[in-house]
Amino acid sequence: MVEPLAFRSAFAEHLDTGRYGRMEGAPGVRVAFPDLPGMALVLARNGQTPGLVASFGLPEGRKRVVRGARAFIGLGPGQWLATGEAGLAAALAQELAGRASISEQSHGRAVLQLRGPHVRTALAKGVPVDLHPAVFGPGDAAATLVAMISVWLWQVDDAPAYDLAVPRSMAGSFADWLKASAGEFGMEVE
Amino acid sequence: MSRLSKGGLIDRAKSLGFHFDGRALAGCEGDTLASALVANDIRLIGRSFKYHRPRGLVTAGAEEPNGLVELRTGGRREPNTRATTAQLYQGLVAASQNRWPSLNFDLLSINQLFSPLLVAGFYYKTFMWPAALWERLYEPLIRRAAGLGRAAGVEDPDIYEKAFAFCDVLVIGAGPAGLMAAQAAGRAGARVIVAEEDFAFGGRLLGERLEVASLNGAAWAQGILAELGAMPNVTLMPRTSVAGVYDGGTYAAVERVADHMPEPPAFQPRQRLWKIVARQAILATGAIERGIVFGGNDRPGVMMAGAVRTYLNRFAAAPMRRVAVFTSNDSGWQTVADCAAAGLEVVAVIDTRDDLTDLCHALARQACARVFAGGRVLDTHGGRSLERLDIRAGDGSHTTLAVDGLAVSGGWNLNIGLASHLGHKPVWRDDIAAFATGAVPPGMHVAGAAGAGLSLGQCLAQGAAAGVQAALACGHAEKAPPVPPCSEDAAAQTAFWHVAEARTKAFVDLQHDVTATDIEIAHREGFRAVEHLKRYTTLGMATDQGKLSNIPGLAMMAALSGRDIAATGTTVLRPPHNPVALGAFAGHHRGMHFRPVRLSPLHAWSAGLGAQFAEIGAWLRPEFYPQPGEADWFAACVREVETVRSAVGLCDVSTLGKIEVLGPDAGAFLDSVYANTFSTLPVGKVRYGLMLREDGHVMDDGTCARRASDHFIMSTTTANAVKVMQHLEYCHQVIWPDLNVQLASVSEQWAQMALAGPRARSVLRAVVDRAYDLSDAALPYMGYAEVTICGGAPVRLFRISFCGEQAYEIAVAAGYGTALAQALMQTGAAQGIVPYGLEALNVMRIEKGHVTGAELNGQTTAHDIGLGKMVSTKKDFIGRTLARRPGLTDASRPALVGFKPVDKTARLRSGAHFVGQKAEALAINDEGHMTSCCYSPSLGHWIGLGLLRGGMGRIGDVVRAVDPIRGQEHDLIVCSPHFVDPAGERLRG
Question: Can you tell me the distance from the alpha carbon of B464 to that of A23, in angstroms, rounded to the nearest whole number?
Fold first, then answer.
């Protein structure tokens, strides 16, 4: 009688598929929505950070490590964002029982992936972090503010592609900033 | 036309049409607005600030005090634009400022006749009485008479943006020193940004007849630019003015992206405000020529000697035909040579020095110019333009010269304002008769003229050295590039400020009309410190921030007060170095983008039902859901309340703060931050919690559920969600770091909705998967459960009620929020379900006597709001000690009660104050105030909550609610704040 619940993207109506800004030429920035069914915060219990880094392979500092389908992104001392399979929070709670507290965040952040020839120029209009390849590359991550919006970002590959995780409630305002900032290069939402 | 037939860095083949004060004119590609006006023989550019005197161009650079125009029209109109920095484009429209009705015939120049009234301090002295006339008469009159350009007054149609850049070495200024520095640092492999405020790189190499490496200066600069442009590690930023220096190697810069076009190209900003983080910076901002204060030195036709050279050499535009040069140093003599070379008639050279070099005499002979060694220009004459000069020769004889132009050089001030932005004071150096940098901000190098290397050879050498040094500091070692040979130019200078014998007005600050007399008045009246001098006379307070006037002004004050300049000192310069448009500061954040808007996961659902939204902090929250035929919010609100009380309603409560408190010490931590106890809360239960501030007042309230022994889910009010999270982080990190507790905000993760009303359970039953028991026994009031819904979606279920009915708060992962709300509306349709908003929620909480922000106003205690019994006496917690202060435990403090009007038709207003029935409505009789009120559909009349002296002990009393602002008074009966279901049977039912 009752249908299963349909998922609604935080970017729905804010960043629909299509071309934005300059229409001529190839888009300077491409937007995709990576499939990250599970996200959770991993919060080290007191005194457990060194052990988690050593035995579980969590990164130190503002780094991202990929382990199979999962990735861990350092957000601050003893704090990581984990991404991976559906049900990730429950799985991690078991695997790290007694060593870390886990908070379910699969829907707390809306994640988009940016790439394209002008991605760095566009990001420079809001990201107060040096993304120059000599300084920031795949495996680097940052927790920062973009247009007054908290953003967790990490570089995925050398293309370069960056993932940006923004608070779900501010996805619309973030999309407004992105459209304004990437408009001059032409932006394609896939 | 005053355009020279050859030379200059303009493209005569590309003519650009433009308008000044409605006149159609033409310039060339490569012109500034100023040089195009010069080429068109336009000498009168504006009227002065206070006296409305005719004014013309004085400089050719960013320091220009007079040549301010309104650029463009309509929403793009930009006042006070320096014509000297505005790059000419086809179709440019500019208008002169501060004249009425026209530039040539200005009625307010009559102000000059009243000039004795308008001297320093006139503001403070003249309009003393009656004070009431200030706002209505004096201010408006003064504002109309004095002033600069007009703001556009309508919205700017263009966009502005911000951007961040990072580099090893930021080179500020691309003259000979900056170009050498950039070349050296770039070749060493450093990441270099070169910021140049001009649209062309080269600085004075563009405006002087100088040679570098056997090329003319501009050609040499082109070669360096080509090399820099090919380096991937070098970024060239033309039209970019560094405006401020901040801590940690942070620099603000404004890039005028599209100011040289009629309109920005689509999707491009007009301007971009850069925040540049540089490990090292090279200040290569050159020097600014200073004037000499003499009578009538503001008359159009009096121009800086270096500016005359720039107009001749760079722009091939002659600002004058019959020229005299008034100088105190050798650099002024370069103008003699350049004027002669351009075919101008050089009538005379007046040099304040008695002994002149052979070179000077040779130049004079070549130019056929008379020489007045030890001479002075006393006064100028002419109508709206210079016609004659009064000269006193070295032997004391007086001469009058007929000229149409006077080139003036008082030497050069180092352009080092940026070096003082972090508080480092410039120091006076007698050897160069100028202020130079002393200590500079960390990581800053000063090179070239800014670094007191005034000759071209010094500029090139210092620039190269600074570039190498800065690159080395960033770990890039490389030998300095060879310093090319170059022209010798004169660099020695002497201090000469003021021709004291002048009989007519002698201007120190051209933009603010501050005269030599004003400096004397300030001295006479005791405003002698440079800071006092500035504020009393407004010297240096105009848009040019005294780039020309500050140092002559303080030098004259030094002379008057018998001190030397070093002892007199100078004011510290602060950002911005040059004016910055407010639009650049705002960037993307204007209108609805002023700050991020937060949208609930149910926003689209509410919007689809036609909700009216209210801005609550950053959130948009549904206020009510009007239905066809409802006259106003009131009708919708009453219907929503009645439906919830009689059937069932659904309300979006996603915006409330949600914080997970995790870890083995979570219970102990909560005991410390809440006034009541949480460690004893069983798993699967919810408790209402009250949080106090350290000072004993209530900070916030909410519920807290226990999910597991080491997992609590706290809720906060929407308004305090961030504050409470910060508070908890502080408590954990600073006060109790040993408690093994972890905190996570989950406000964004969950869509949360309240399903409330006598039929709530039956609606919920229809969507919760069959395996779960929702009976009162399984999930009683204040119970917590985790169930699945709609075939497997996990939800967190809180049996809590804010409205006083049987109610559940359902939390589902945010992406499923809209779908769940739709499912509940669908299954509840048969039960008569309605969505309800903040208005209905507020009415129902008042009916139940629940407090919100109106009562938790930062001044109330737990006792004041009727929750004194919740405060634990068995444990320590934040706020415990100070809550026991006598002032906070005083039994007579106003405390929460309810109110009903004696006249049941009365409409109550929150904010009304209570006085005794017979007492006069005076503050001394004040007994408290109404915090919240509403029309109660359940009772059929208005009700209120308020804080009343004596609190619950006053039940049954009649008090008067006085609202002097709205002119209302009502008699009220004091009652319990629990208007509906005081025993709480409905919420347990």
Answer: 45
